[in-house]
Amino acid sequence: MDVRLENLSKSFGSNSVLKALDLTFPERKFVTLLGPSGCGKTTLLRLIAGLERASGGAIHFGGERVDHLAPADRNIAMVFQSYALYPTMDVAANIGYGLKVRGMAAPERSEKVGIVAKVLEIGHLLARKPRALSGGQRQRVALGRAMVRKPDIFLMDEPLSNLDAKLRATMRGELKRFHLDLETTSIYVTHDQLEAMTMSDLVAVMNEGVVQQFATPEEVYDRPVNLFVAGFIGSPPMNFCDVTVAEHGGVPVLMLAGRAIPVPPQFTLTRADEGRRLVLGVRPQDVRLADLDDPTAVPGTVWMVELIGSERLIEVEVAPKLRITSEVKAEVRAAIDAPAAVAFDDAKLHLFDPGTGLALPRAD
Ligand SMILES: Nc1ncnc2c1ncn2[C@@H]1O[C@H](COP(=O)(O)OP(=O)(O)OP(=O)(O)O)[C@@H](O)[C@H]1O
Ligand SMILES: [Mg+2]
């Protein structure tokens, strides 16, 4: 069932946390809310769950307005950022609790608990009490408690945050698999963009209580709608450079650190744009090191070199205080303070208006 938010807002006193959201989470899709700390992700999830009342607007599940329904009447399952287990019950009873209160018989319950526990690799812990579990194990019990029911809507608030890197990677796959098997609508909160990009059908990038972009992971990465999304998505972050539109040989060009860069074909600039200031964005993955005598490259000196596993980051200073990071294979060597030149993959360049922050319209 789909979840539709209509002009939804939430304030705590004078603090306006969510601002007139209009958003539809399509049926059976895995949607991620991604944004910096404090942008309102948990608040939005709590509104959908019914744990918090909206200050304005409406929430619909499958076309039915649910604002007046108590959490228990919304057929949702939620895994909280700070989860609480029943301390006196063992793991099996914790996971099966929701089934028990719904009157499911013990043998069937234990079968369902067993299946979920196996998926979560906590089958050997079923007889333990929560106090005898590690943080990551407790988190998986909390997940299990939500997974064991068949909710219409599955809400998860950073459910993998206490797990180590290896287990997180495994659990990402398990959760996605589980979502597909359950055929439920999943809304997943994270500020880990790798999680968002790998698991989601759609990503809602939020900042300061406003959804900045709601699109597929590919689109959010390849066509960020504004400077915030462009800078928030991608690691290391996108390079931003101030450029000015100028005329060169009768055609508009972008002036960057004294060099004329052709306007990428996906953007249409005219003579009327001459003198206009823009922000050029390019991801480190789309910057390469060029020959020093390459006329299309921007020359500078190597500022910093960092090895990050199989890649190397090379920061080149092309003008005072203007550094461009290039991500290259680890085999590529560069010496600090040595001359270097950077060149861009044209098709991967982004242009933004510095006033509005919006991406310029593209032809592709
Ligand atoms: N019960 C509350 N009373 C007052 N202010 C609140 C309440 N709950 C949240 N806030 C405020 O609302 C804003 C959004 O909080 P929220 O918990 O939704 O952020 P978040 O995006 O989940 O952040 P994080 O990634 O850190 O979990 C914050 O400024 C927070 O201080
Ligand atoms: Mg939160």
Which helices and strands, and how do they pair?
Layout: E1 3-12, E2 15-25, E3 30-34, H1 41-49, E4 56-61, E5 64-65, E6 76-79, H2 91-101, H3 106-119, H4 135-147, E7 153-157, H5 165-182, E8 185-190, H6 193-199, E9 202-207, E10 210-215, H7 217-222, H8 227-232, E11 239-248, E12 251-256, E13 259-262, E14 277-282, E15 287-290, E16 298-308, E17 311-319, E18 322-329, E19 339-344, E20 350-352
Parallel strand pairs: 3-8, 3-9, 6-7, 7-8
Antiparallel strand pairs: 1-2, 1-4, 4-5, 9-10, 11-12, 11-14, 12-13, 14-20, 15-19, 16-17, 16-19, 17-18
Helix pairs in contact: 2-3, 2-4
Bound molecules: adenosine-5'-triphosphate and magnesium ion (MG).
State the total count of DSSP E strands. Answer: 20
Low-confidence stretches: none
Which ligands does the model contain, each kind named once?
Answer: adenosine-5'-triphosphate, magnesium ion
Residue share in helix: 10-25%
Number of domains: 2
Class based on secondary structure composition and strand pairing: alpha+beta
CATH class of the largest domain: Alpha Beta
The residue-averaged pLDDT reads 93
Helix-strand string: EEEHEEEHHHEHEHEEHHEEEEEEEEEE
Label the overall shape.
elongated
Write the CATH homologous superfamily of the largest domain. Answer: P-loop containing nucleotide triphosphate hydrolases
Tell me the β content.
Answer: 35-45%
Q: Characterize the main sheet.
A: 6 strands, mixed
With strands numbered from the N-terminus, the spatial order across the biggest sheet is: 6-7-8-3-9-10
Number of helices: 8
Looking at CATH, which topology of the largest domain would you report? Answer: Rossmann fold
How does CATH name the architecture of the largest domain?
A: 3-Layer(aba) Sandwich
Distance between the termini: 34 Å
Query: What is the radius of gyration?
Result: 25 Å
